[in-house]
Amino acid sequence: MNYLTTDFKHIGTDGIFRLYKIENKTGKGIIRRCTVFPGIELCYHTIKMTDGGNINKTGETGITEINHCREGLFECTFLNGNSLSLKKGEISVNTLANKTKTTNFPKAYYSGASIILDERKAAHTLHRLQPVLEDAKPDVSALNTLFSTNEQSRILPAAQITEPIFNGIYEPLSMYTLPYLRLKVMELLLVLSSLETNSGKTQPFFSDFYIYRVKEIHDYLITHPDSVLSQKQLAASFGISLTMMKACFKYLYGSPLFQYMRTYKMQYAAQLLKNTDKTILEIALEVGYQNPAKFAQAFRQECHILPSDYRTAFKTGILAAPY
């Protein structure tokens, strides 16, 4: 399977793995790739960059990709205007027939693994393994039914049933690398193909317009922590509906807008308490609270201590400040 674009340069081998490198002005990344079975490949991704370019330019029909995010955050947009965001611990399953437009790693670091299935060849391989696997044979058609939705991907959150398998995939026994990886990959495919069709969630998609607008809103709020605009006013100011703003913000940043901003504001307030002599009232106003009592309540809920006690404890050395 030759699904990597010319952005990736083959730079050598490491045992059973073929090594590929991608590099641009935002950083570089390494992919370690091996054929586990005919039609089934395993890739390890170690990315230290923000802009991954356009990884899947041409689109490949009949290829299913299972991705697991170990660390970091992966985002991509497709030519049809849809987008995908994969967070730590999550699994995405999608078809490479969807052509990508952009690929980004917002945290400038991504570590993960992918299993690539050539649906025709993988089905043939599993058929050949039938005498060994018996009733435990993974069903590729079930995977396709469960996950392949043409224009969409399915996201599975971190789960107890799959995390131990991926932990094993990330730390193979060196003496038995290929046989061990074959067992772990087969175990994962068996578990995924046995899931009910309502397992996980279909990845919500938002057009470039909504992605762009919500990122603008995020940047505005981060640079204006004293903003007192309501969410309704905020959505209207940026020309999108309140419902779409809420849904897209949670999709992009992992938590509801109110919760995300309260955490950010209290972390920022903690820095001001540590590093400045501003009064509690001044700090409250700087993070958008007109009422110092409400600010103190929010700070305590977030940091488990009152702002005045936080400042005193930090300056006297009693508290090793978490922010």
Kindly list the characteristics that best describe this protein.
about 325 residues, alpha+beta, twelve-stranded antiparallel β-sheet, 12 helices, 12 strands, elongated
Order of helices and strands: EEEEEEEEEEHHHEHHEHHHHHHH
Instruction: Output the structural class.
Output: alpha+beta
Helix content: 25-40%
What share of the residues does DSSP label as strand, in percent?
A: 25-35%
Uncertain regions: pLDDT < 50 for 5+ in a row? none
Explain briefly what this protein structure is:
The chain is α+β, with helices and mostly antiparallel strands and 323 residues long. Helix content is 40%, strand content 25%. Strands 1, 2, 3, 4, 5, 6, 7, 8, 9, 10, 11 and 12 form a twelve-stranded antiparallel β-sheet that branches.
Give an account of the 3D structure.
This protein has 12 helices and 12 strands. The longest helix is centred in the last third of the chain and has 19 residues, at 257-275. Strands 1, 2, 3, 4, 5, 6, 7, 8, 9, 10, 11 and 12 form a 12-stranded antiparallel β-sheet that branches. The mean pLDDT is 82. It has helices at 119-128, 130-133, 140-147, 163-170, 177-193, 208-223, 231-237, 242-253, 257-275, 280-286, 292-303, 307-315; strands spanning 9-14, 17-24, 27-37, 40-48, 51-53, 63-78, 83-87, 91-95, 100-104, 110-118, 154-156, 201-202. With 323 residues, it is of the alpha+beta class. It is elongated and about 75 Å long.
Provide the fold topology.
Layout: E1 9-14, E2 17-24, E3 27-37, E4 40-48, E5 51-53, E6 63-78, E7 83-87, E8 91-95, E9 100-104, E10 110-118, H1 119-128, H2 130-133, H3 140-147, E11 154-156, H4 163-170, H5 177-193, E12 201-202, H6 208-223, H7 231-237, H8 242-253, H9 257-275, H10 280-286, H11 292-303, H12 307-315
Antiparallel strand pairs: 1-2, 2-3, 3-4, 4-10, 5-9, 6-7, 6-8, 6-9, 6-10, 8-11, 11-12
Helix pairs in contact: 4-5, 6-8, 9-11
